[in-house]
Amino acid sequence: MLFMLGLLPLASLVWRALTVQLGANPEQTLIWTTGLWALRFLLLTLAITPLRKLTGWAELARLRRMFGLFAFTYALLHFTCYLWLVNGFSVDAVLKDVVKHPFVLAGMTALVLMLPLAATSTNGMIKRLGAVRWQALHRLVYAVAIIAVFHYWWGKLAKNNTVDPKIYATMLGVLLAYRVAKVWQTRRRNVGPRRAAARI
Amino acid sequence: PQLPATKDAALSTREALTPYKDVTTYNNFYEFGTSKSDPAKYAGSLQTRPWTVVVEGEVHKPRTFGIEDLLKLAPMQERIYRHRCVEGWSMVIPWLGYSLSNLLKAVEPTGNAKYVEYITLLNPAQMPGQNDPILQWPYLEGLRMDEAMHPLTLLTFGLYGEVLPNQDGAPIRMVIPWKYGFKGGKSIVRIRLVEQQPVTSWMKAVPQWYGFYSNVNPKVSPQNWSQENERRIGQGGFGGLFSPRVPTQMFNGYGAQVASLYKGMDLTKNF
């Protein structure tokens, strides 16, 4: 059910493309919409763990992988549209753009960092890597999210229109702050008894 | 309403026109909102009559023109120009107007007039986007005197045979075809001839990315994405999805007429 909902933005774009309803500049509509959904799914993915802990609803954990893979799918579509519509499938032109423009480099970095995460998203890969190593690798998602928000903000800065990027940055900030607070809490809990023991 | 004009074939391109619908529904006009569809939706509130334009500053004969006077100041011409947006898309538009030089000559610039700045209406009640401090209002753009006097620089009153729709900058706007579209100030109420180079709205907003000249230049891209090619709006099937982008030309293809204005200037620095 949720899987179908995740496909809805893509289905809508395909439908609008086929019926010529993507507006005066379909290129822009496709690139912006897929990019935005990649970012939305990325934040949704990061929201799962806090939500699960706050609500105690363990079922939520199952959504995390799906949302993560949707984020990757939309990011890949975002890149494909850019490669196709802006660069006419010229890898050379893309590389030139990446080298010259930090905004493009940021987007590309986020996508490349998502590759190992998507590749190790299966149960088999989790087993093969072992939970500890798998989890360490998947902490990359924090870097991906920070770079992705930066990419969005940097793109919009050119039009001096950073209201929406600031909203996304704030949401990401809350999600990351939650993790920092958790780590801090655990450390205090672990350090506390040890100190007490030393005093004895 | 119709706006009669004679065709100026010599200064017009013969490329395929961008459909009227795209020219009038896909606009950047932040005074009515930041989305491309906002101007067509919200520009109905703009009152274009009565309308006056103050021309002042370093001139011997400062004057306030009524829009009716301006419509009659020089013969109305149709010029089909390429229009290149800094965002990487372009259109081909049949504008109606006459060279700005006609107006400037009428007010007799003094020897101190080195630049021309032109200012858009400031009226948040009619222009709801001005309630958003996204730019410093009113919108201000400018040209060097020789650019302003160049015959291609068009004081524009209409498009596609009729007066400008509000969302395209009614009742009077500037069109400078070899520069990025944002140099074309819309709904102008004040034109000032000055000695110092104006600091434009975009220079104030994002100084590292927007300079004074803003000439179309495929080799220079301070705005963080490539300017080497552009999406021609309204060409090809499925909204142009299967047509390739077209290469962007230096000075938007008007180099033969305007390149001499910039002789000896480093256009990488003066972007």
Give an account of the 3D structure.
The complex is a heterodimer of chains A (200) and B (271). In chain A, helix 2 packs antiparallel against helix 3 (61-86). Chain A has nine helices and no strands. With 200 residues, chain A is mostly helical. In chain A, 86% of the residues lie in helices and 0% in strands. Chain A has one domain (2-199). In chain B, strands 1, 4, 5, 8, 9, 10, 12 and 13 form an eight-stranded mixed sheet that branches. Chain B has 271 residues and is of the alpha+beta class. The relative contact order of chain B is 0.19. Chain B has one domain: Oxidoreductase, molybdopterin-binding domain (Sulfite Oxidase, Chain A, domain 2, Alpha-Beta Complex), CATH 3.90.420.10. The radius of gyration of chain B is 18 Å and the shape is globular. The interface between A and B is medium-sized, with 28 and 33 residues. Chain A: Its main location: membrane.
Keywords:
heterodimer; A: 200 residues; mainly alpha; B: 271 residues; alpha+beta; Sulfite Oxidase, Chain A, domain 2; eight-stranded mixed beta sheet; five-stranded mixed beta sheet; 13 strands; Protein-methionine-sulfoxide reductase heme-binding subunit MsrQ (chain A); transport (chain A)
Task: Describe the secondary structure blueprint for this structure.
The complex is a heterodimer of chains A (200) and B (271).
Chain A: H1 2-18, H2 26-55, H3 61-86, H4 91-100, H5 102-119, H6 123-129, H7 131-138, H8 140-157, H9 163-199
Helix pairs in contact in A: 1-2, 1-3, 2-3, 2-8, 2-9, 3-5, 4-5, 5-8, 6-7, 8-9
Chain B: E1 6-7, H1 20-25, H2 38-42, E2 52-57, E3 63-66, H3 67-72, E4 77-84, E5 89-99, H4 100-107, E6 115-120, E7 140-144, H5 145-149, E8 154-159, E9 162-163, E10 173-175, E11 188-194, H6 201-205, E12 229-232, E13 246-247, H7 255-258
Parallel strand pairs in B: 1-4, 2-11, 5-12
Antiparallel strand pairs in B: 2-3, 4-5, 5-8, 6-7, 6-11, 8-9, 8-10, 12-13
